[in-house]
Amino acid sequence: MYRFLFFFLISILIVACQSESQPKPKAFLRLEYPSPSYDTLQGDCSFAIEKNKYALISKGEHCNLNLDYPSMKATIYITYMPIKDNLTDLLKDAQKLTYEHTIKATNIIEQPYINEKGKVYGMFYEVDGNAASQSQFYITDSVKHFVTGSIYFRVRPNYDSIYPAAIYLKKDIRRLMETTHWK
């Protein structure tokens, strides 16, 4: 009986002396997107832009464009409007659309854009938080042309989850703004 008890205790000690199990370290999702490559999108509209080659384009009425990014479940919606003595109203509408996201946004950063040579003036809005749109912009020549754009994801807006895609698309919007020229 003592012999059995002795072997039992030795067995327990041998099994118990193995290395302690360690909890797994926290892992972070690594999302990699292709390096952007741009081509000029020219059509019968009053403006031309450079768009990412990975974006699928669909044209709507009156030179409205959708740049779809299927792998990110996101779309950049671009709307063109001619100015007809209504620049102030168009500017107010663009700003109002952005600030409707303040309910869910933690911060909205305004970044003016001015290209004197190309006569392109506008504003880029970076929206932080669980808002429906992470970036919005408008550009104009202040005389004839007015273009607005915004990013929307086809998923519930969880800022932590969409952050990598939002950063990628913000760079595309900046490129789009910087390369716009009027016809």
Short synopsis of the structure:
With 183 residues, this protein is an alpha+beta fold.
The unreliable regions are none
Amount of helix? 25-40%
Number of strands: 10
Secondary structural class:
alpha+beta
- Output the strand order for the largest sheet: 3-4-5-9-8-7-6
Element string (H = helix, E = strand): HEEEEEHEEEEHE
Largest sheet data? 7 strands, antiparallel
Radius of gyration: 26 Å
| Overall average residue pLDDT | 87
Which range does the strand content fall in? Answer: 35-45%
Number of helices: 3
Distance between the amino and carboxyl termini: 99 Å
Global morphology: elongated
Describe what you observe in this structure.
The chain is α+β, with helices and mostly antiparallel strands. Helix content is about 25%, strand content about 35%. The protein is built from three helices and ten strands; from the N terminus they run H-E-E-E-E-E-H-E-E-E-E-H-E. The chain is elongated. About 25% of the residues are buried.
Helix and strand arrangement:
Layout: H1 2-16, E1 38-41, E2 47-52, E3 56-59, E4 65-69, E5 74-82, H2 87-99, E6 105-115, E7 120-129, E8 135-140, E9 145-153, H3 159-179, E10 181-182
Antiparallel strand pairs: 1-2, 2-10, 3-4, 4-5, 5-9, 6-7, 7-8, 8-9
List keywords for this structure.
183 residues; alpha+beta; three-stranded antiparallel sheet; 10 strands; 36% strand
